[in-house]
Specification:
single chain; 6-stranded mixed β-barrel; 10 strands; 2 domains; elongated
Length: about 550
């Protein structure tokens, strides 16, 4: 037993720092002296903290994390609803995009993009690659500088290809996975759906794309889409809504002023892009809803992941928070038992001059050490668990990719969680330990805290644990039911059976989907638009 410093010198000036360091050293020695209790407490905290951190990490990547681009607060998309990025972002026809592009002077930068899926061929090996059709100003709008080579330019975005022919920019992950991180990749040939492209650049590793949950492998100019899709091209279609219009506001421009400016030219855009008369109701309702400029600094949600998974993830977060509460109640019971066994020590320290604050601080520091160790181990478990959970959201058709890297939000959450857990299971033991009397040091060692008081506290904690466990069991049942429902939700692909009569053209072994009157060509590129196209054609 070490002798306490003088109270006045310990709690003033540099003596406070010295005494605080002594308390940390003593707390670490005490925890090492009872390794079994310390390990049980740390593992309990790590499991609760890790589960909580995993869910918060997914929510952070899904809802809060900014795109790794220049000044993401100035990025926006053209929509018709103010909350478009919480659900599905509406699409625009190519002719609508061209008309909006004529008014590019309203904004700092303007671009368009659409998701796609290519069959790539490298060194004779075929693979499926997630792609992007992007206008020439796409990377310039985002402010993304390539890691190797160059980005797409307006000169590349012409039908048939620019001065260098059809070109492509590949992602860092695709470069690592398919090309072995070859430094000679720029200039190499890449075949997409049997059309040769030249690789001109590689994006930085942090950039996965602008659509939350979907990372791209290859980006090609928007105007080269007819080369790949030939007669099924959407560029020449005036009715298929397949493009997302992305823009960057000027420094002095707000979302409201940009919306007002775009709405002034909306009648002219509508008049210039009306579908042919045979499209009836589609023509009547075309561009009737007013344009709205919606913030896109945190990415778009073309797959609808935010709308589909935000509420279930919040439910899961509530469940794992209950698990953490139960763990804190268990550790509080352990700390109370330890405080009872150490009553003689605390009484002796009080007799030597230690204040009640000093005794409470010692027990609180021990709790803080437990919480910190549990948080560090929990952060590791959370990083591993979040990757597993995201992989469970993926399917063979739709791969879900989220940026789950550690950032300042997760750091702030871990610090707040550590402080909260320390307060939850450390306050009561610290308070009870500080109430010992110096005279107790003269009594027979080992009586501990009053039996009645300890029984009341332990009984209360046990009752709280039982109540939390009942709530947890009910919540777990609801969670399993929710998870089962989510597993049955299609991730963008819908199987629809229809009967059509068409003649098979010679020389084309594949059934021409565009010949079916109830299926639009855009359904082949983006299956999620099939249902809306069916409804529009039926009306």
């Amino acid at each position: 037993m070490r002798r306490d410093h003088d109270v006045n010198s310990a709690d003033s000036g540099s003596g406070f720092t010295t005494s605080l360091w002594d308390d940390f050293r003593l707390g670490a020695r005490i925890l090492r002296s009872t390794p079994l209790v310390a390990v049980v407490a740390i593992l309990s905290l790590a499991l609760g903290t890790g589960a909580t951190t995993a869910i918060v990490s997914i929510l952070n990547g899904l809802l809060l994390r900014n795109l790794p681009v220049s000044a993401p607060q100035h990025l926006a998309v053209v929509s018709t609803t103010p909350d478009a990025n919480r659900g599905r972002t509406p699409g625009w026809t190519y002719t609508t995009w061209r008309e909006i592009q004529r008014h590019r002077s309203m904004f700092d930068r303007l671009s368009a993009l659409a998701g796609a899926r290519f069959t790539t061929t490298l060194a004779g090996e075929a693979a499926i690659a997630e792609g992007i059709y992007a206008s020439g100003d796409f990377f310039d709008t985002l402010g993304v500088q390539p890691l190797l080579g160059r980005a797409l330019t307006a000169a590349d975005d012409v039908q048939g290809g620019g001065p260098d022919g059809p070109v492509a920019v590949i992602s860092y992950n695709f470069w690592q996975r398919q090309l072995g991180a070859s430094p000679m990749v720029v200039g190499q040939r890449l075949t997409l759906d049997r059309v040769p492209f030249t690789i001109v650049g590689v994006t930085p590793p942090a950039f996965l794309g602008v659509e939350v949950g979907r990372s791209f492998d290859v980006a090609v100019p928007l105007a080269t889409e007819p080369l790949i899709r030939s007669r099924d091209s959407l560029v020449n279609s005036g009715v298929d809504r397949w493009l997302t219009v992305l823009l960057r506001l000027k420094d002095s421009q707000s979302f409201e002023t940009a919306t007002a400016a775009l709405r002034t030219v909306q009648p002219d855009i509508r008049q210039a892009t009306l579908p042919p008369p045979q499209f009836g109701r589609l023509r009547q309702d075309f561009l009737q809803e007013p344009f709205t400029i919606v913030a896109a600094g945190q990415g778009t949600s073309g797959l609808g992941l935010r709308q589909r998974y935000t509420r279930p993830l919040v439910v899961v977060l509530a469940v794992v928070a209950l698990v953490l509460l139960i763990a804190c109640a268990n550790i509080a019971n352990l700390q109370l038992a330890r405080a009872s066994d150490r009553q003689h020590e605390f009484s002796l320290r009080a007799a030597l001059g230690a204040s009640r604050w000093r005794l409470a601080r010692q027990v609180f520091i021990e709790s803080a050490l437990l919480a910190t160790a549990g948080a560090i181990l929990g952060a590791l478990l959370g990083a591993w668990g979040s990757q597993i959970l995201v992989s469970q959201l993926s399917s063979s058709v739709n791969r879900v990719d989220l940026d789950l890297s550690f950032d300042w939000r997760l750091l702030a959450f871990m610090i707040a969680l550590t402080a909260t857990t320390t307060f939850m299971f450390g306050t009561v033991p610290a308070f009870r330990s500080s109430r010992v009397a110096p005279i107790d040091a003269l009594r027979r060692r080992g009586h501990g805290l009053s039996v009645a008081g300890r029984r009341v506290l332990s009984g209360g904690l046990v009752a709280a644990q039982i109540a939390l466990c009942v709530v947890l069991v009910v919540a777990a049942g609801l969670f399993i039911r929710t998870l089962d429902g989510l597993s049955r939700v299609p991730l963008g692909s819908t199987a629809i059976t229809c009967s059509c009569s068409t003649s098979m053209p010679r020389g084309r072994p594949l059934f021409p989907m565009h010949a079916c009157p109830c299926i639009s060509v855009s359904s082949m590129l983006r299956p999620r638009r099939l249902a809306s196209n069916l409804q529009e054609r039926r009306s």
